[in-house]
Structure prediction request, 173 residues.
Amino acid sequence: MVKKPKSHGTGRFRKKDFAKIGRNVVFEEGALVFHPENVEIGDNVYIGHYAVIKGYYKNRMKIGGGTWIGQHVFLHSAGGLEIGRDVGIGPHAVIITSVHKSGNKKRPVMHNELDFKPVVIGDGCDIGIGAMVLPGVKIGMNSIIGAGAVVTRDIPAYCVAAGNPAKVIKKRI
Prediction:
């Protein structure tokens, strides 16, 4: 007998389903939210068309007030995700908090255990279009991540980082 795969749900949500939701939160057409019971959103947050807010059955996603999340952004909080206040996240950016361990080389990677690591994005940051932030990264306040950057390690506060892998290219102060 073949087991039917379990769905993660439709992504449809009601504001009352959230762990916490502030005033003046805008969800554009096509935005999806999974596990809203583990998602906290502050006041005056914008979530663009077709963004995916992928809460997880454990750990929290916290989105600070005044944050702008662009179209087609993918946020995944399996390892925990904290986005500060007044953060801009450009269209098509991806922030993930888990990866499959390399584990047993005799089985497909996706069948190995997950490794969970939180991501923290400080207040006032700007994450460029198409940037990727990988598990375990901390981005200091008021930093800028360039378009298409792949952030694999921590970025200090008040810095501009770009490239793959992202490197600090200048300080903002």
Notes: The radius of gyration is 16 Å. The CA atoms of residues 76 and 96 lie 5 Å apart. The longest strand covers residues 167-171. The chain has one domain: 16-171.
